[in-house]
Amino acid sequence: MKVNQAEFIISAVGPGQYPEDALPEIALAGRSNVGKSSLINRMISRKNLARTSSQPGKTQTLNYYRINDDLYFVDLPGYGYAKVSKTKRAEWGKFIENYLLKREPLKAVMQLVDLRHPPSKDDQAMYAWLKHMDVPVIVVATKADKVPKGKWQKHAKIIKDDLEFDRSGPFIIFSSETGMGKDELWEILESAIGWGQQEPDSEALPESAPSEQ
Length: 213
Fold this sequence. Notes:
Elements: E1 6-12, E2 25-30, H1 36-43, E3 62-67, E4 71-75, H2 86-102, E5 106-114, H3 121-132, E6 137-142, H4 152-163, E7 171-173, H5 182-193
Parallel strand pairs: 2-4, 2-5, 5-6, 6-7
Antiparallel strand pairs: 1-3, 3-4
């Protein structure tokens, strides 16, 4: 997908603020320092549309970015920081769970993990939950530029083993610095949202098409 336009739309704090234009949505989940904002900026070829918070873990909203009037990236609050109360974390968890399970335009979740390190307990729990709930998930291993190329597959294997990764699902090695994995990830996202797939023109249907019963 060639990105001609990208803009920040809203930091939503509840369903009443979600966009109502029915564009497909791709959510980004991951630890607060895993590079979600950097991935968004690389994917849309912008330097600072998505900005990194100066206080990781503090963001409590769903940040919507509209791409080309084709889809939204929805940046979820980062997990893995314990700088808030258990009550607040529980509220966040319910907020995110409702979005992931009930938001009809949501087509897939990009779960970002750091290629340099084994998945955290939060990473493991998120992946297991998404799979259990049948939410389509794309695992993206970020910060590949920080790992020697010859060790990429070794690190990827550790991540897959620790996540109990479903080998039939997509797994992308990615670098926001170099753009490694960008084109491959766009192909997966285009497929997830059905981009470029046109509904058949009713006038072009073959005469033998079955009629409605």
